[in-house]
TrEMBL record:
Transmembrane segments: none annotated. InterPro entries: PIN-like_dom_sf, PIN_dom. It comes from Candidatus Gottesmanbacteria bacterium RIFCSPHIGHO2_02_FULL_40_13. This is PIN domain-containing protein. Residues 4-123 form the PIN domain. CDD domains: PIN_VapC-like.
Length: 134
């Protein structure tokens, strides 16, 4: 199974502790045991690094290397064309960055894993989506 894990999961795992930190850790440990392909969009990687830098948590060099180990999926013409098709069909309540992430999940045939309430509510119009609860 291919998964696109949103920055909300990684930030809860690596950043300042919040209510999602423990479930994020359990999810990632289970994923590690079970295997599976993880898709890492460049936008998700950028969000993770930016937020963790602002929080002044963790070793950013190690985090960046960890993210590069996945292989980064860049924002490209195919994603932009799919965004255009979706945007012409319906008015979406997602901000641009969330739309990019959902479309990337769709194009790569991945399930989007997120804690983001708006993505959980609106992304099912675009791709498979679920929270990381086990």
């Amino acid at each position: 199974m291919k998964l696109l894990i949103d920055s909300s999961v990684y930030i809860s795992l690596m950043g300042k502790k919040d209510i999602y930190s423990s479930p994020s850790e359990k999810f990632m440990l289970t994923l590690e045991e079970d295997g599976g392909e993880v898709i890492m969009p460049s936008l998700v990687a950028a969000e993770i690094v930016s937020v963790l830098a602002k929080q002044k948590t963790g070793n950013l060099s190690a985090v960046t290397q960890y993210l590069f180990d996945f292989g980064i999926v860049s924002l490209d013409e195919s994603i932009l064309r799919e965004m255009l098709k979706i945007s012409l069909k319906s008015v979406l309540a997602l901000k641009t960055s969330d739309l990019v992430i959902a479309v990337t999940a769709r194009i790569t045939d991945a399930t989007l894993i997120t804690w983001d309430k708006k993505l959980l509510k609106y992304a099912p119009e675009i791709c498979r989506v679920q929270s990381p609860k086990i």
